[in-house]
Design goal:
mainly alpha, about 0% strand
Length: about 375
């Protein structure tokens, strides 16, 4: 070490400066190279492309309820004909079974209210009676016929001084159900009016949440689902609200809150023995684990959901589970397992007439092209 000091003292000041500059340049170059490599590494990590397909889900949850006429007037052949024709129309819509069930429920209740109105006196009762007869005899575009009649009946009913706002609200829910699949904004307007007339009805708020979510208005959807929770008089309604709030949190990227909501919904459904609700939440939790990269836990959740759906014979739920399990195997590089599961999902989605059939078919095509 002493010889270095002596050598340094023997050279001129200019040499000192030159040596210092040379050392500085070497150090600066090394640091710059290291920083550049770090930046490139971070960039690659942040922009790394996930080539696996996006999972299918989540499914919003609907509520069970009844009209003000439930358990009252017996359904006559005209009512049965109306409902039969409406079911034929709804089954042709490209929406999920869950959404179809919601429409069917709301329309059942609306027909009940029309029947109740038709038993009265006056012009509106006559309009309701004529509408039911017309609908029972209509075998094409039943939904269009009902929409036209409901518009006229609802407007006239609202203009009455003596009216039951709950009946008016159900008429609006019926109009909202008819527009739900094809006209989101129109459906939204009807359900909004329904909640104004009957603010304690959780079904109206739940449907509003679905529609706001579909429009990307997540904050408003969250408020709607919170209203369901606040108004809930049954544990099952709270389970529904927690599940739907979980979907909003997940969509917003708050996976921790989403998992908390799903767990609350799962706990209630488990206590109630509601297997369909349990399957929905296991599936939702699987989606969260998949997003977090925990493929083992994701697969475990999908398997639990699948076991329940098979036991219940829920083809739509089974199709979702097969599709999402296939994504996990594809992500892990097991393409044969992915192909097998996607083929099972494709068969079920095709049987159901689901638009997801095209999505799954595109995944299978991509496997062929990757060979």
């Amino acid at each position: 070490m002493n010889w270095i000091i002596e050598l340094w003292g023997a050279v001129t000041p200019d040499a000192h400066l030159s040596a210092f500059v040379a050392v500085f340049v070497v150090i600066a170059t090394a640091v710059t190279a290291a920083v550049f490599k770090l930046v490139v590494y971070i960039f690659k990590r942040l922009t790394k492309e996930d080539t696996s397909p996006s999972p299918l889900g989540n499914n919003n949850v609907v509520l069970n309820g009844s009209s003000s006429n439930s358990g009252g007037l017996p359904r006559d052949p005209i009512d049965s004909g109306v409902i039969s024709n409406l079911l034929d129309q709804i089954n042709q819509l490209k929406v999920t079974d869950t959404e179809k069930n919601t429409q069917i429920k709301d329309l059942h209740q609306t027909v009940d209210e029309l029947t109740l109105i038709s038993k009265g006196q006056g012009d509106i009762a006559h309009m309701a009676k004529e509408a039911l007869i017309r609908l029972a005899n209509s075998h094409e575009a039943t939904n269009v016929t009902l929409a036209t009649d409901l518009k006229s009946i609802t407007e006239n009913y609202e203009n009455q001084r003596m009216r039951d706002d709950r009946i008016a609200a159900q008429l609006y829910r019926g109009r909202g159900a008819l527009a739900y699949a094809n006209n989101t904004h129109e459906s939204l307007g009807h359900y909004q009016r329904a909640t104004q007339l009957d603010p304690n009805n959780v079904e109206g708020w739940n449907q509003l949440g679905h529609l706001h979510q579909r429009l990307g208005e997540l904050e408003q959807a969250m408020k709607d689902y919170k209203n369901v929770n606040d108004l809930a008089t049954e544990p099952a309604h709270r389970a529904v609200s927690y599940g739907n709030m979980g979907i909003i949190f997940q969509t917003q990227g708050d996976l921790e809150q989403a998992m908390t909501m799903y767990q609350k919904a799962l706990d209630i459904n488990t206590d109630l023995g509601h297997k369909e609700g349990m399957a929905n939440q296991y599936g939702n939790m699987g989606l969260v684990f998949k997003t977090q990269g925990d493929l083992e836990q994701a697969m475990a959740m999908y398997q639990k959901a699948l076991d329940i759906n098979i036991d219940l014979g829920r083809k739509e739920g089974m199709a979702y589970n097969y599709a999402n399990m296939g994504i996990v195997f594809q992500t892990q590089g097991d393409l044969e397992q992915a192909r097998d599961l996607w083929q099972r999902a494709l068969v079920l989605f095709t049987e159901l007439g689901s638009p997801h059939a095209k999505t799954v078919q595109s995944w299978l095509d991509s496997l062929k092209n990757s060979k």
